[in-house]
């Protein structure tokens, strides 16, 4: 299996050494290591034209706003009582109870814009007091019982890629906290080829699982943008969606069963292939974000590796026409496996900022066809060659009837090749003084246009300042028969004096607006700490009561990730 690489503390990608440490603000660390970004210099990743375009659009003046050195990040001493540490060591072994600085820093928070702002400013006040690495379901259940007895908060840690404050470890009672890193539990336990079921441990990541499955001609096919670092347990705990989820299904759809270790004991949930034995309790574990316990094993549905793939681009003249086209595809059950419709702002930004042959080809095709930038649709099909051909042909006819023009396979292929690159670019943009964040929702087809307008208006109103305005780029990322998801990327000149408040206000305005217009609080990022205040608006007071009652039964002392999911 490939090595599971560590994620850098202040950004995305593997830890790197900067080529020019002198431009960095803040004191140098003891070890001199600066874990900033995979690409320390914006000029290396964005062309001059792209930088000019952003400066013009945003009223942004590029400036170095680099993170402090890792050695300068402030970390309070561990609050874990010695008696507790001793008992945890007896349970797990000395090597698996860590209170050293590096372990604690590596488990401080996730990877949202706010998480990165804090880490870049040298703030690790959300770091756990210790990091535990259990090796089995039994050890996990035992540590949960022990932490429950000793009043220690437990935050499960998968890949650490949460973007909703899922790892912030907030506790209203301010008890000591431990991060339970599932990285030691990262193997494939068994593969049942006739039943298309693979049993895995929660700390395994997508690339390692895909490599294992490929040896048997199988695939899981779950490819979120965080695929390189996120874990299978994390996907289940957050109800993740991948880039091919329109076709293969969301992660929820791929889970046939899980083992959940809780302070009250271990429960097995889910009965493949199907069951009518009462309500499906598996749904309690999916999206539970560590608030009910720790998922220690997963049984996942797999499928044969695709023998044929086809990705291509289409262009619509307008957003409304694009949405109507997708709706037609959905109605006829013809949605491709990958569906990504960009709005005019995102299409224009992609055309301006993307280099490479795909973007060049697209610009040429659009010019030749006398179409403006319009709205770009990237679609992809995977599977048996005959099925891919038939589905593609049928979808093409619907798209043409809806007024779309095919703009070629190079566009689709280019998207596929670069689909994991954006998070690396985020670091470089942040280094140069930009606010960069995303948010997402979903709505029925009828409500989607209003949700789109409402989010854009709210973000523009909140982030507009004298001479500066945000760039708000949206795309439909997943289609369903009943509606679609909307993914929004925001760029703006950062308010250097109050960067955290700047985004908190914008996020609050956007969330209020999207809920009022009929969108869901989150389509795939989960609730975490950031969305908690709005959960009651989505599931109602009685819904919250039901969740609380389940938590009370499984986690009577409230030690399991108390800062997420349930409102205060
Ligand atoms: C650059 C970037 C791109 C992203 N792209 C996508 C995307 O395309 N689609 C998408 O859905 N999400 C995306 N995300 C969000 C994130 O990757 C997902 O939420 C992912 O599922 C989290 O997995 P993880 O292993 O990193 O979990 P973590 O971040 O470690 O944990 C997430 C939450 O789940 C809990 N948890 C983790 N493991 C377990 C477990 N075994 N048992 C119980 N609780 C657990 C944690 O306590 C936490 O509350 C992206 C994030 C980033 C930073």
UniProtKB/TrEMBL annotation:
Site (Important for enzyme activity): 340
Pfam families for the chain: FAD-oxidase_C, FAD_binding_4
Residues bound to substrate: 426
GO BP term, pick one: lipid biosynthetic process
Keyword Flavoprotein: yes
Regions annotated as coiled coil: none
Transmembrane segments: none
Protein name, UniProt field: FAD-binding oxidoreductase
Family: Belongs to the FAD-binding oxidoreductase/transferase type 4 family.
Phylogenetic placement of the source organism: Bacteria, Bacillati, Actinomycetota, Actinomycetes, Geodermatophilales
Region (Disordered): 1-28
List of catalytic residues: 487 (proton donor/acceptor)
Ranges where the FAD-binding PCMH-type domain occurs: 124-305
Single GO MF annotation: alkylglycerone-phosphate synthase activity
Binding positions (FAD): 156-162, 289-295
Keyword Flavoprotein: yes
Keyword terms, alphabetized: FAD, Flavoprotein
Cofactor(s) it depends on: FAD
SUPFAM superfamilies: FAD-binding/transporter-associated domain-like (SSF56176), FAD-linked oxidases, C-terminal domain (SSF55103)
Domain of life: Bacteria
InterPro entries assigned to the protein according to its UniProt record, in alphabetical order: Alkyl-DHAP_Synthase, FAD-bd_oxidored_4_C, FAD-bd_PCMH, FAD-bd_PCMH-like_sf, FAD-bd_PCMH_sub2, FAD-linked_Oxase-like_C, Oxid_FAD_bind_N, Vanillyl_alc_oxidase_C-sub2
Gene3D superfamilies for this protein: 3.30.300.330, 3.30.465.10, 3.30.70.3450, Vanillyl-alcohol Oxidase, Chain A, domain 4
């Amino acid at each position: 299996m490939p090595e599971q690489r560590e994620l850098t503390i202040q950004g995305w990608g593997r830890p790197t050494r900067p080529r020019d440490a002198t431009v960095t603000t803040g004191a140098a660390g003891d070890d001199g290591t600066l874990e900033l970004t995979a690409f320390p210099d914006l000029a290396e990743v964005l062309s001059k034209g792209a930088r000019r375009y952003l400066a013009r659009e945003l009223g942004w003046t590029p400036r170095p706003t680099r993170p402090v050195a890792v050695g300068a990040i402030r970390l309070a001493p561990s609050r874990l009582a010695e008696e507790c540490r001793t008992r945890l060591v007896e349970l797990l072994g000395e090597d698996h109870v860590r209170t050293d600085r590096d372990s604690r820093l590596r488990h401080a928070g996730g990877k949202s814009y706010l998480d990165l702002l804090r880490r870049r400013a040298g703030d690790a006040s959300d770091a756990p007091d210790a990091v535990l690495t259990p090796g089995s379901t039994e050890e996990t259940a035992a540590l949960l019982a022990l932490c429950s007895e000793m009043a220690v908060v437990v935050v499960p840690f998968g890949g650490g890629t949460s973007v909703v404050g899922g790892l912030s470890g907030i506790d209203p009672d301010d008890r000591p906290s431990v991060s339970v890193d599932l990285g030691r539990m990262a193997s494939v336990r068994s593969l049942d080829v006739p039943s298309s079921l693979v049993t895995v441990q929660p700390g395994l990541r997508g690339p390692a699982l895909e490599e294992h499955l490929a040896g048997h001609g199988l695939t899981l096919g779950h490819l979120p943008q965080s695929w390189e670092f996120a874990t299978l347990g994390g996907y289940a705990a957050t109800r993740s969606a991948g880039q091919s989820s329109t076709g293969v299904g969301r992660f929820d759809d791929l889970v046939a069963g899980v083992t959940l270790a809780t302070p009250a004991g271990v429960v097995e949930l889910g009965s493949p292939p199907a069951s009518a034995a009462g309500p499906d309790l598996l749904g309690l574990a999916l999206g539970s974000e560590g608030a009910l316990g720790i998922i220690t094993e997963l049984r996942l549905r797999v499928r044969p590796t695709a023998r044929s793939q086809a990705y291509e681009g289409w262009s619509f003249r307008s957003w409304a026409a694009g949405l109507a086209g997708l709706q037609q595809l959905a109605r006829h059950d013809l949605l491709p496996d990958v569906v990504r419709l960009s709005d005019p702002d995102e299409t224009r930004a992609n055309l301006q900022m993307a280099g490479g042959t795909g973007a060049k080809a697209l610009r040429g095709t659009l010019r030749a066809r006398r179409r403006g930038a319009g709205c770009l649709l990237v679609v992809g099909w995977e599977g048996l060659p005959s099925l891919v051909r038939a589905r593609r042909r049928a979808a093409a006819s619907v798209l043409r009837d809806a007024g779309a023009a095919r703009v070629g396979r190079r566009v689709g292929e280019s998207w596929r090749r670069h689909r994991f690159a954006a998070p690396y670019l985020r670091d470089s943009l942040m280094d140069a003084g930009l606010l960069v964040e995303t948010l997402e929702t979903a709505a029925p087809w009828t409500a989607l246009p209003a949700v789109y307008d409402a989010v854009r208006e709210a973000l523009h109103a909140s982030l507009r300042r004298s001479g500066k305005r945000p760039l708000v780029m949206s795309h439909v990322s997943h289609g369903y028969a009943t509606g679609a998801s909307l993914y929004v990327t925001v760029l703006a000149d950062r308010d250097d004096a109050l960067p955290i408040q700047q985004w908190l206000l914008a996020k609050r305005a956007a969330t209020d607006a999207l809920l009022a217009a009929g969108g869901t609080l989150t389509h795939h990022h989960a609730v975490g700490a950031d969305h908690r205040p709005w959960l009651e608006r989505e599931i109602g007071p009685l819904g919250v009561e039901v969740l609380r009652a389940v938590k009370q039964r499984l986690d009577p002392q409230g030690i399991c990730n108390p800062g997420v999911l349930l409102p205060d």
